[in-house]
């Protein structure tokens, strides 16, 4: 390259790369479309995923009955719980057999038979035991399995506050 040519190149004005009208329209339309689709889809994704991120109602206590009504003789009390399982929300009614032990401590047993899940009843045969009508399983007042059922009745967590009995999550029987 001669000196003259080099001189000309150095003084040529810098060429800007201009955006064509077509490119400008594609970018604008693409951006607007992405914004609108995002605005419509994100709430749906949030709606779909949200229940899975919510904490389950574990550890919640349900008010059941005044403590003064609890006797040594087991009585059945019904209560409702509020449960959220993914998208499914329900308020099933549950039951507990609640009584006092020899030390005056209140405890609550699940009414679900540990054989095949029928509902047990207290003293239905006059023997001061829990009996299951399905296949004759029997349990003591503490829920100890005496016949047919392989395990003791489950127990509810119990607390007494301001003269009221609350039941909490179900747990394995801790009394037998
Ligand atoms: S379900 Fe209770 S004895 Fe079978």
Automatic annotation (TrEMBL):
<keyword id="KW-0812">Transmembrane</keyword>
<comment type="subunit">
    <text>The main subunits of the menaquinol:cytochrome c complex are a Rieske-type iron-sulfur protein (QcrA), a cytochrome b (QcrB) and a cytochrome c (QcrC).</text>
</comment>
<keyword id="KW-0813">Transport</keyword>
<keyword id="KW-0249">Electron transport</keyword>
<dbReference type="GO" id="GO:0051537">
    <property type="term" value="F:2 iron, 2 sulfur cluster binding"/>
</dbReference>
<feature type="transmembrane region" description="Helical">
    <location>
        <begin position="24"/>
        <end position="45"/>
    </location>
</feature>
<dbReference type="Pfam" id="PF00355">
    <property type="entry name" value="Rieske"/>
</dbReference>
<keyword id="KW-0001">2Fe-2S</keyword>
<keyword id="KW-0472">Membrane</keyword>
<keyword id="KW-1133">Transmembrane helix</keyword>
<protein>
    <recommendedName>
        <fullName>Menaquinol:cytochrome c reductase iron-sulfur subunit</fullName>
    </recommendedName>
</protein>
<dbReference type="GO" id="GO:0016705">
    <property type="term" value="F:oxidoreductase activity, acting on paired donors, with incorporation or reduction of molecular oxygen"/>
</dbReference>
<dbReference type="InterPro" id="IPR006311">
    <property type="entry name" value="TAT_signal"/>
</dbReference>
<keyword id="KW-0408">Iron</keyword>
<dbReference type="GO" id="GO:0046872">
    <property type="term" value="F:metal ion binding"/>
</dbReference>
<dbReference type="GO" id="GO:0004497">
    <property type="term" value="F:monooxygenase activity"/>
</dbReference>
<keyword id="KW-0479">Metal-binding</keyword>
<keyword id="KW-0411">Iron-sulfur</keyword>
<comment type="similarity">
    <text>Belongs to the Rieske iron-sulfur protein family.</text>
</comment>
<comment type="function">
    <text>Component of the menaquinol:cytochrome c reductase complex. The Rieske protein is a high potential 2Fe-2S protein.</text>
</comment>
<dbReference type="InterPro" id="IPR036922">
    <property type="entry name" value="Rieske_2Fe-2S_sf"/>
</dbReference>
<dbReference type="InterPro" id="IPR017941">
    <property type="entry name" value="Rieske_2Fe-2S"/>
</dbReference>
<feature type="domain" description="Rieske">
    <location>
        <begin position="98"/>
        <end position="167"/>
    </location>
</feature>
<keyword id="KW-0560">Oxidoreductase</keyword>
<dbReference type="InterPro" id="IPR014349">
    <property type="entry name" value="Rieske_Fe-S_prot"/>
</dbReference>
<keyword id="KW-1015">Disulfide bond</keyword>
């Amino acid at each position: 390259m001669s000196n003259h040519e080099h001189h000309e190149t150095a003084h040529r004005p810098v060429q800007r790369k201009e955006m064509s009208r077509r490119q400008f329209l594609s970018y604008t339309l693409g951006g607007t479309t992405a914004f609108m689709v995002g605005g419509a889809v994100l709430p749906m994704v949030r709606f779909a995923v949200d229940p899975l991120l919510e904490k389950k109602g574990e550890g919640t206590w349900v008010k059941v009955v005044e403590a003064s009504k609890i006797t040594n003789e087991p009585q059945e009390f019904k209560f409702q719980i509020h449960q959220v399982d993914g998208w499914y929300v329900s308020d099933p009614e549950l039951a507990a057999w609640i009584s006092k032990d020899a030390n005056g401590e209140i405890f609550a047993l699940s009414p679900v038979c540990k054989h095949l899940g029928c509902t047990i009843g207290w003293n239905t045969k006059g023997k001061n035991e829990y009996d299951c009508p399905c296949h004759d399983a029997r349990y003591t007042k503490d829920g100890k399995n005496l016949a047919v059922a392989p395990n003791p009745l489950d127990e509810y967590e119990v607390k007494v506050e301001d003269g009221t009995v609350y039941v909490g999550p179900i747990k394995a029987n801790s009394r037998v």
